[in-house]
Amino acid sequence: MFLFFYLLKHLPGNDGKIYIMPTMLIALGGYGFYRIPLDYKIHVIRSRATPDEKKAVIKEYTLHLNVKRMIEQDNYFNIVYRKYLLWPVYLRIYVLEDKILLNAHTYFEYGTRGIIDFGVGPAAANHAKDFISRVLGD
Question: Which position among 8, 19, 58, 114 has the lowest Cβ density within 10 Å, counted as fewest Cβ atoms?
């Protein structure tokens, strides 16, 4: 590894261009190791409100979104909406007695999945968490 960084610093003539591609691949791989766990992060919102009040807040939140599909089953919400006209976001929310659990990540309709979404998934999760926390006030 030391040799790799030494060669990056002391490039031999015009042959230095050969080190640009490995550097970019290592950077992309490092970003992947940072980014992939964010898709599986569960955000917890603690609240003393009743489950019906929590469901009403979630339905109010969906009014502000460009919802393509929403499925509600008892205490579980499965929402697909388009954010910034580019990437659909897959938002899952589960309502419990004392807390709300939510997860969001980018959604690709044709089955392909990549890690480069420019932070749309984590931003959507933080936006939902902030809105629900602000409205419930706990």
Answer: 114
